[in-house]
Structure formats: C-alpha cells, structure tokens
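Severity: low
Component: inverse-folding endpoint
Summary: output formatting inconsistent between runs
Steps to reproduce: submit the following structure tokens with default settings.
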C-alpha cells in the first residue's frame, strides 16, 4: 500500500507578508467557508490555502474524472494510474454526480488527514467497495490490487510476481473474512484493522501518504 511519495508536506507554510497578502486576496463566499470550517477539521487559513490551489488547478471549481486522472498520472509516470485514479475519484465523488467539488475534496481530505480511526476506516471501506453494496468481494479487492500494481509499473523492488495481486487478496480475506462467506462487511473490516496498531498498519500508512499527496497537489 505504500505507493505514494513520502516527501510531500501537508500544507504550505505562510511565514512572509507576501504570503499573507496572497491569501487575503482569495475570494470566498463567507457562509460557505464558515460552513466548511465547521464541518471539517481545517482552520480558515488552511481552507483558504487549499482553495487557492484547487482553483489554480481547476478554475471551474470542480474536477471531472478525466482531469483527476491527468493530474494523478503526473506522479506515476512509470506506470498506468488510470484505473486506480478512477476508483479514487469515485471515493471522493460522494454524491456520484461525475465531478468532485471543493467541498467534496475538503471533506474527504479532512477524514484522511485528521479523521478518527473509525472515519478513516469507513472511508477506506468505501474505496474498496466498488459497487457500493456494503460488501467487499474478492473480485473488488483484486481490481484494486491490480490497479495499484499497474500504477507502480516496473519500479517496485524486489520485482513483484505476476500473481502478487491475487496473493495479496487471499491474505486480506484470510484475516478479515471472519465467517468465511466470501465477502467482507464493514464490521469485519473495522474489527480486523483496529486490532493492528496504527504504526504497523499498512492501510493507515497508505492513506496518510495519500492525504499528503492530495494536499501537496493543491497547495503548490
């Protein structure tokens, strides 16, 4: 799961007068900004910085799937990130209207960076539950694993075997499918993940790096 660069910083530092003046020029609807501040775990200044970067990348104020894929592919030129970016886009597109607004982006990022363990695990489950029926099947997990390996390309060391994605899925289900019915429920998923401490859980490491990449991509 550790697929994202570790060198990204969470937020731009705002130390100079010039930076402060630049933030001050960002235009928001006050009621929308105040609502986001109340609903998310970001401060007003952080929201302004993120909004500035978001509007630079997407002047229309929304991101469609093709734009999201193009941005994401820049970080993984050695492989094909198209399929994984599709799954990730759907996780952020919570109302399933084919676009990610700034509000969608902030609420997802807030969970990934500062959410509780329960919130992060719910978000992760939603990513893996591709058809949103409340269960993770082996086929869904295999699709995600294949997408990750496709995105990594040939840069992994040691070089992964062709059947590595399927082996990963089998290991996943051995640990999480408690009643052996062939699917993983949200309760099984959360129970299994909570038994592993955060510093040892690859899932948490992955989503922390994901959040760092997403915040970096909008603040630079």
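Observed output (run 2 of 3):
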């Amino acid at each position: 799961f550790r697929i994202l660069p570790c060198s990204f910083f969470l937020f731009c530092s705002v130390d100079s007068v010039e930076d402060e003046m630049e933030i001050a020029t960002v235009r928001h609807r006050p009621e929308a900004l105040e609502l986001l501040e109340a609903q998310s775990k970001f401060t007003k200044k952080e929201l302004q910085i993120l909004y500035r970067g978001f509007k630079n990348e997407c002047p229309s104020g929304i991101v469609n799937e093709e734009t999201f894929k193009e941005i994401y592919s820049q970080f993984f030129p050695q492989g094909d990130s198209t399929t994984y970016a599709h799954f990730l886009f759907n996780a952020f597109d919570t109302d399933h209207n084919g676009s990610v607004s700034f509000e969608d982006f902030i609420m997802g990022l807030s969970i990934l960076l500062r959410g509780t363990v329960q919130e992060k695990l719910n978000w992760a489950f939603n990513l893996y539950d591709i058809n949103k029926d409340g269960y993770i099947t082996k086929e869904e997990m295999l699709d995600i694993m294949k997408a990750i390996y496709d995105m990594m390309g040939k840069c992994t060391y040691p070089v992964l075997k062709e059947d590595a994605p399927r082996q990963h899925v089998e290991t996943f289900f051995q640990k999480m499918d408690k009643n052996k019915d062939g699917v993983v429920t949200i309760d099984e998923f959360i129970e299994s993940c909570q038994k592993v401490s955060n510093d040892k859980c690859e899932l948490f490491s992955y989503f922390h790096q994901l959040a760092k990449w997403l915040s970096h991509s909008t603040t630079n």
